[in-house]
Design a protein that fits this description.
This protein is an alpha/beta fold and about 270 residues long. About 45% of the residues lie in helices and about 20% in strands. α4 links the parallel β2 and β3. The longest helix is centred in the middle third of the chain and has 18 residues.
Length: about 270
């Protein structure tokens, strides 16, 4: 089992970094790379064994490679620490919240033209695993699955969901079957969703025979117009044993889940063995 890190953006903001504008965390890659390293280290010190690179919303190949290098720097030479290269959805590049809607109106070829160079830049930097994350739509998933099969590098594949459907409204059993058909995909699951949605999603993911990966957000809702999270946190580490029992082998947090919560997840995961 692996303990993932938590949200990069909230941890950077807690350190006083400005994430306004379309680049989001990629802005800090450009201006203050040492801050990225510091956050990765904070999550490792909290008990995470996976650092997810700051490339979720990056399209510049140089910044993408740098994000992996910084995560690797933070991991140091500690045995068992892994670096996951984050490949976010096309909607993240728009910075308009469409990663929580899908249905972009792009063809498969257009989506491939966006994702192939980003994936190649990540692979060139040498992460241990690719984190294909927050995918809202099976159309985009099909394109990404073909690319993962072509490059044959270890990856997990994680959807953004609402209730028992992808954000675009597709059934989860059909959605999980798409990446699960790729041999190099080591886990399928969900992220940046409400914690309450994780359990049912894991049951659908388990039907694929692949291990589960789950890292929900704090349970708040992203207001794309106001560019802020609204609502209250419902992230409950007491749910972790049930997630593991349902097949989760990679567990952490996403937006608004910080080092303190990850530390508690790590303690529970350690006790579960």
């Amino acid at each position: 089992m692996h303990v993932l890190d938590g949200g990069l953006s909230n941890a950077l903001e807690a350190r006083g970094n400005d994430l306004s504008g379309g680049e989001w965390t990629a802005r800090v890659l450009r201006t203050s790379p040492d801050e990225i390293v510091a956050v990765h280290r904070a999550y490792f010190e909290a008990g995470a064994d996976v650092a997810t690179s700051a490339s979720y919303q990056a399209s510049d190949p140089g910044l993408i490679r740098l994000s992996v290098e910084l995560a690797r720097e933070a991991a140091g030479d500690v045995e068992g620490r892994l670096v996951a290269g984050s490949l976010g959805p096309f909607g993240a590049l728009r910075a308009d919240g469409s990663e929580y809607r899908g249905r972009y109106g792009l063809t498969a070829r257009e989506l491939e033209e966006v994702h192939r160079p980003r994936l190649e830049a990540l692979l060139a930097a040498g992460p241990d695993v690719i984190a294909v994350e927050t995918i809202p739509d099976t159309d985009e998933a099909e394109v990404l699955a073909r690319l993962l099969a072509e490059y044959d590098h270890a990856a997990w594949f994680s959807y953004s969901i609402v209730g028992d459907r992808t954000c675009a409204g597709q059934r989860l059993d059909a959605a999980f079957a798409i990446p699960a058909a790729v041999d190099s995909v080591v886990a399928v699951g969900v992220n940046c969703c409400a914690p309450a949605d994780v359990g049912p999603a894991l049951r659908a993911a388990a039907a694929t025979g692949k291990p589960g990966v789950v890292y929900p957000n704090a349970g708040e809702v992203w207001d794309a117009e106001a560019q802020q999270w609204v609502g209250t946190s419902t992230y409950d580490v007491g749910l972790v044993p049930a997630w593991v029992e349902a097949g989760a082998a990679w567990v952490g947090g996403c937006c608004r889940v910080g080092p303190e919560a990850v530390s508690r997840v790590a303690g529970i995961m350690g006790a579960l063995g």
